[in-house]
């Protein structure tokens, strides 16, 4: 395998260069400006200071970056686009607040924030007509904002709701509404169809229906789910066509694919670590663990961790479920290390260096690319102490994981079983305290992606430098990923 490492490095570089060329081409000719409206960070995309304005809003745990496929395409088509980070999300320093279960709580605050962005959009020189586009959580927000604008005699011209669920939709409001769902979002597809059938009971997916000034349509993006719909070229095209009809606007361009190029760039960065890892200082090989001890080390923490923590857990960090995750991972990892009879010790300089390389590659190189093209990965100052606190849980957990899996050398059934045990333990915690910990379930896809991407990089480093280097490096990466992903929240 050693002789293939230079070839892998060259392929990684070529993949990254090709992807960067395509991704940067999508920005060519645009004026992209970052600004603030109150405390809300906003990015203005435009080819020229004219054209209708589209306000773009992201979903829960999202950011402006994850909406770029729509923002860039609409800006290239001649619209001006204002994309913003909701309170508690992305680079917005102000936490979410209020009662998340009440319409007049958190929802009302986010609607008010959206309407401030709409007001700013109308204050821009030139065409002051406004359209709204939002994903997931934001669909309910933009629909309620559009209704409030009508009540203030300032109606928006069109709404595009992606992966929509909102109880605020009525037979005549919003008047110009397109609902886009991914093919694999069966529940949300039904919600979109129900909205169209309020206007015409015979409405079908893909058809435009109308009654008087009200116009509705539902569109299904093929082969995608809740996140993939944000990178679907056909979905972006449908949104652009809807705005073109609503504004009687002729688009200058058609959307170009971005999702596969983002994936190519991130794949290239991951592959780039493979030849680099071979040059790290060699470390000890993690010993094989007897099957009986391995099973005890995954099953006992699985059962005990939620039983020990959920009865006494109280919020103490200003990020949704970050405090519980820190405690859960710390106890889970500590139990595993104790059962494996692996005790804390000072790592060698070589192991520390290798852990630092893994952390820098996973956070700075991979993370900065992710931040520019796909999702927020840079923390606000308020999040830095949260990341530090999360390290108290993520490092013990990843250390235990690296030893359990022999830094990736263990049979695949052991690697899968070790990760599934952690998932099962988190699910058990959510079931024990559903009112407080349901949001823990949202973390599971993040963990799955982390093990798929960073876990692979950790495996390469661990096989060369040892389990301690992989465990510490992955622990730092996981703390960072969790700390920047989930919303800041200040309870009412």
TrEMBL record:
The keyword Membrane applies. Keywords: Hydrolase, Membrane, Transmembrane, Transmembrane helix. It holds the Pfam family Abhydrolase_1. InterPro entries: AB_hydrolase_1, AB_hydrolase_fold. One of its GO terms (molecular function) is hydrolase activity. Coiled coil: none annotated. Residues 52-189 form the AB hydrolase-1 domain. The chain crosses the membrane at residues 260-282, 294-313, 325-343, 350-370, 382-400, 412-431, 437-456, 468-490. This is Alpha/beta hydrolase.
